[in-house]
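Weekly puzzle thread! Below is a chain. First person to post its structure in token form gets bragging rights.
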Amino acid sequence: MERLSVEYPYLLSVSPDSFILFDNDKDNFFDEFYQAFAGYAFDSEYENVWYLQGTDAFFAARGSRLVLQDWAGKIYFSLPLSAPLDSVESGGVMLVGMPEPVSTETLQAAFGDTKGDDKALSQALLDFEAQNGWNEYDCEALCICLFNEEGLERMKRDYEL
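Winning reply:
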């Protein structure tokens, strides 16, 4: 497989309200977040797809930035966006780690048709691992809620956050 220089993390839109954020597991972008929320994720019906409650931590669309934070206001990660995501009142970002860098073209081809569907994402992860000779579960997805300002206000009101 061709390896190209890629800016990591890399954000791929798979539907109007679903995104995959790829990390190469070497630059440690999310280490502090993973340490803070170790044990919070719960499994889905697919062994390589996990969920984090939106009442624990979330991604927020803040103008031209995508911010990963908790409800106490601690920001764990911030990514500049080429276009604002303000129209996404609530959606999801699947955080996917890769054991090594992969070209954006390859990621788009492998995951672009998952459309935010967990079953399709799970199968794409398994297929991608096999194609690259990686171990099963080298790539796992952590699904995290995405809110714009209106969605955040609704969450605060509904869950008394």
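Puzzle host: Confirmed. Bonus trivia for everyone else. The beta strands are 10-15, 18-23, 42-43, 49-51, 57-62, 65-70, 75-80, 90-97, 141-147.
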